[in-house]
Amino acid sequence: MVLRCICRGASNPSAAEGIDRRGLAAKKLPRYVHGRLPAQQAAVVGAEAAAQAALCAASPSILRLVDVRQDDSSFYLIQERCLMDLRAWLRPRGGAPLSGREVACIVQQLLCALAACHRAGIAFRDVKPANLLVREIGADGLPELALADFGCCRSTADPPPASHTSAGTPLYRYGQALGAGRLFLGEGMAVEHCQGPHKFAF
Ligand SMILES: Nc1ncnc2c1ncn2[C@@H]1O[C@H](COP(=O)(O)OP(=O)(O)O)[C@@H](O)[C@H]1O
Ligand SMILES: [Mg+2]
Question: Does domain 2-158 have CATH number 1.25.40.20?
Answer without folding.
Answer: no
